[in-house]
Batch of 2 targets.
Target 1
Amino acid sequence: MDSRTMAFINLNAVLGGLTRLCQLDSGAADIIKGKDISVGISVKGGPAGTLVFKDGACTLAPGAAKCDIKLPFSTPEKFNGMIDGTVTPIPSRGFTKIGFLTKDFIKLTDMLTAYLRPKPEDLQDKKFFNISTTIMFHLIVDAIVQIGNHDEIGRASAGYIVDGDIKLEIDGGPVAFIRAKNHRLKAYHQAPEKIMSYMCFENMRTARDLFDGKINAVASVGQGKVRIGGMISQVDNVNRILDRVALYLA
Amino acid sequence: MRKIYEYPKSRAAFERACKVIPSGIYGHQGPTEGCYVPVEAFPLYSSKAQGTYLWDLDGNRFIDYMCAYGPNILGYNDPDVDEAAARQRAISDCTTLPNPIMIDFADLLVDTVACADWAFFAKNGNDVTTGAIMTARAYTHRKKIVFFKGYYHGVSPWTQKIDYAGVIPEDVANNIYVRWNDFEELSQVFEDNRGQIAAIIAQPYMHGNFMDNELPAEGFWAKVRKLCDDTGTVLIIDDVRAGFRLDMAGSDHYFGFEADLICFCKALANGYNVSALCGKEFLKNAISGLSYTGSYWMSAVPFAAGIACIQKMKKLGMPRLLIDKGEKLKAGLIEAGRKYGFDLHVTGVPSLFYLRIADDPSLMLHQEWIAECVKRGVFFTSHHNHFINAALTDADIAETVEIADEAFSVVRDRHS
């Protein structure tokens, strides 16, 4: 596993999950209600991005030049340590606003963790289950893109992906697409206009079971629980990257 | 309008299989790797086969253009091959000492295949492509192997890609990939790896999946042959898929050059399980030194079947017979598509043709048409080249074109 790739995943996919959390969980939205603050993360030799909390919503913008609180990390490992809870970040900017970081931000990341590493009993609640699965779906899409762009073996898979949009969808649930161009990948968390290929899970339960490794993807295609079509070589290579998502997010 | 097939018994069998067999049907004959889109359009298990036909568990009959992915060349249950196999089975099959019919089979291959001075037998195509690589490395004492992108040479780790499950980077560390028909890139690779390349392994032409199949450019093979000669590199032709559907003397012979090693399987014995690696005299010592064998590699029944198959193929004038049938089918399919405004591309050699509706680069339109053909009794796939067998009649070709026509009309109605 490559630390730099992990840092890209941690910023864009894991912390990126805060954007969905604030859309889907009213408790999270309440925490940032009325806030107007941004947290920039800059990793030397790795990713940079800014989480913007404004008007009750959270967005992730590229770069960390303009932000209220700036968290610089000298290495990808240190940033990854913050996500794991083993490294305490020291802001280089925004000391007067540190309260947001130590209180509200922690609350949000704790909520996100609850959805990403749910207790079995929590998943019995349908609403929790749907939010958790939706956040996980988008996180996986983001992680696929980061691995396809940064991980050595993931890049080999991306190297075989022909140009075009690959739709990923849970029937009756979330939809996203990955745009492949010149073997670089980009995630879009919305329905695509025109697609080159698709992978569609029949429902949230099937998607969840696949994410959790409880059912087999190849058998599920045969059983019609997962639909694939179009330029299947795209889907095939996205699946190979998906295999590596589990390695990074285990 | 033709009857639309349904597959309740296949579906039930698949559900049963999923409980006891990983992914139900693994590999290329399963619905995932087989690209069954949508899966409901395809049968999953066969109940019987005869000639060019395959019947599924629900009693639906198909004109089968996959031919078990190649082995069916004379027709399923060919009486001459089956009789030869039965005769040998009554004598011996898998025994402590091999039956001398093995020598007869080797003699026949050496007489038939242009570049062959000897024959080495195994079971699957992968066995002989792996044997070829080992032989090349043993002979040259070099590590690196050159592949053409879009290749398929089996399933051993060395044949797979770095991102495949169960493959580690070291398995493919000595693989070099170049573009098909790009001699400049190939020359540069040899320049950059001087004295390190053991072999080039290639199919006789590019019959990769999801793309139109591509024949060798004018003079390409002659230049590759010379490059191998100049650098002491072994030239391996993987004729597992195309073997005996282009030329009885080997597909290298068809394209006017000689391989150093050539791999056969699929059509070698009309479905009996045997593969063969044939090669030139100078490599015989190298392969003799390999520790490379298998429990069933010297079974006599497939040798008897192989002899009968090759003799019958020669008698029938294969592969001209298959190419002619393929030409007829190709013309009929293209015309049927044109009638409804579809630009159907039929590429590769007609005896193993590849189909693609070129109006839609995503292949979704093509997958729809393939599904409509399958539901009416023509077994095509959307991603892979197809195969012609000798039992296919003009009436079968006419029926195929009729079904293809109806399938085109259904797809056209859906998208008009």
Target 2
Amino acid sequence: MSSSTAVAESPRATGPRRETSTSDKLIDVVSRYGTIASLVACIAIFSLMKPDVFATSQNFFNILNQVSILGIIALGLTVALVQGLFDLSLAGMATLGGFLACKWLSEGTIGSPVLAVVVVMALALVIGAFNGVVVAYGGVSAFIVTLAVGSILTGVVLGVSDSQTILSGIPDGFLVMGQGEIGPVPAPVVFLAVVAVVLYVFLEQTQLGRHMYAIGGNAETARLSGIPVRRYALLALGISAACAALGGMIVAANLGVGRPQGVGDTYLLDSFAAAFIGASTLRPGRFHILGTVIGVLLIGVINNGLSIMGVETFWQYAVRGIILLLAVFAASFLVMRRR
Amino acid sequence: MTTPNEPGREAASRPGPLLRVRDAVKDYPGTRALDHMDFSLDAGEVHALLGENGAGKSTLIKALAGAIQLTSGTVEIDGAQVDVRNPQRAQALGVSVVHQHGNLVPELSVTENVLMVEGLGRRAGVLVDWRRAHGRTRELLDRVGLPDLDPHRDVKSLGPHEQAMVAVAKALASNARVIILDEPTTSLQPGEVDTLFAQMRRLAQEGIGFVFVTHRLNEVFKVCDRITVMRDGGLVGTWQAADLDHDRLVDQLVGAEKAIAHEAFTATAPPREVVLEVRGLRGDVLRGVDLQARAGEVVGVASLPGEGAGEVVESLYGIRRSQGEVLVEGTPRRVRNPQQAVAAGMALVPRDRLAQGLVSELSVRENATLASTRSYRTDPVLRLMRRGRERSEVAEVMAQLSLKSGGLESEVRTLSGGNQQKVVIGRWLLRRAKVYLLDSPTAAVDVHTKAEIYGLARSLADNGAAVVFTSTELEEFVRVCDRVLVLHDGEVVGELAGDEITVNSIMRLSFGRKSV
């Protein structure tokens, strides 16, 4: 066996085992920073083509304002997705939130706008937690539960409103949520920033966030480590619902009317798109707040830029779809390469 | 010892080997997984392919199955060079791999699984001809020694042994002549292993060549004609099984550092105070088990699968329903779920690291503190994590365990099996667990890593913890346990200590024979 042994010992000489090649590093960089690069590229292209309209500070805040509602809803959804829970009830939840706040305020049920916002968000938290109870203790998939609950919520709003939009009696104190400004910054952008910071700290810096990532990664390991896994579904879907309701209220405040239908549906698919684009960014395969923010901005910049350039709406949809595919493809490509 | 790959012997009886791999090289970025490997398989032989983790066995198998392409080297079948460029091609060439879990779809019927590759026959080109399909399946089941198995049954309703044989039948359905069995015995009971081997021998007589990959060396001598050992991606040697024995085979596997594979890790000091006391543990399997574990000792719990050993561990950790008294350091504790068990000071090192022990996408640090996040949070309301303290304590424990990783922030899945196991153990050190439940902690790790894990078990005990150990490999009890409780049918039928602990004595007791 002398000759074969001599050969067998040679691989150790070729170098350390886990050394990564340049091509691996390139793929890694592309998948981590690809989304950010395409965001920068989009901004650069639009700025070059329409420097006088796109690249202005007014348009900058305009974009932020346009994406803020989507952003708030998508950030809440991110918390649910961290645990692997799809929340499809957020469309119905957003509609319900906006409508209820307007109804209660215009009818005088609740006098203070601040209190109304708090009560609606608390109600959303409870409904979301109910989703969580059915998921965690009933063993039903979140996809189905939230689809059903979303449908129920849509029905409830239509029934309560008798399909009538609330047009008057909404106090200015509420409208300021959607129309006010702090210096040059529109109020919805302030809400977006607050939600982003709070949820970032929650997911990245707290014990609860840590446990959520563990459960999303491997629920059995989390359970065997002594984490009470089930109750986290209540928290995740509760946060997702509360953010959706907040988003819906800002829509209502922005438009100045309480619409009983169609408010949330606009945001449902885009919020999933933003979260999935985010999951392919910086930390591939992991949903996270910063990623979702980047995903939201990318969608916002593309919509805004294409509108400014006079591109038809149907093209905007198509381009958004292509970008989502590319982002998810990049992330899964990396995951496949690692196996 | 004979000369490896002696060409004369093979040439004597037939024109050439059924399968031959020459000078196979497979390079991955930064590493060479196969290094000028040679291997040959005759028709009608059972050939063991052995090596430690990372020796290159799986790379070779993947190349033969068409899952990866060799960087250089040739594969010959019946003396003709072939290009195994994809799995379909491998199947067409008659090479079939049966993986540990049998690559079957549990929700489908036996027939649907067996004929998955061949395809189900059609009537008029549209409707499946089920009668013919089941008939064909029965023929194949007959060939693997399961003539009475109903082909309509779902695969998930079969026992592990039947699943293994159905997987072989599936290979036969695609006219396989080379069947590669990758750790097929992991989930089998001793009797079932013998049945599998008998069928392998019979099929070998029909001219099929088996490549048998396993970590259980005893099995090699039961069923194999020849043994090939790999190390560091290359060939160490090929021997007739009759020319080797267990110890000499281990020496070939581990190479230079031979001593480590035989080292024992039993206690050097007498045990101290009682840490874990269990009285009258009952459940669907257990029928009143008493157990005591002291600081400084490793207590083994052994039984045939499903007869109590695994059930004791699961009951103590609250995964399995049970009644009975459990005292940790003299305090009665309720352990109805893992949360309560962890609170009581229990620690589980589970059988399946990736499925139960780790969150593979999270970092070493996050995995290590998973059970002790509470001790790093600022307060019970905001619950912010004190990262600095977390990092320094993890670093300290991992240094103690001499963890080899790309840093505490690297994802835990990039670590080797042994280092992953250290992260799991580190988690419980950080939690300051008092009772360690080790459930087959060395499953599917190589000889070196096994020794390291035994050493860790010993040092846990030396540092004052109670260690309860169970395993499917009886040799392990001999090397690491100071005392072994043997269970049969849910009851303790004997207790062995010191030199009384042998594979034979454990085996005899676990079959219910009270006298040793």
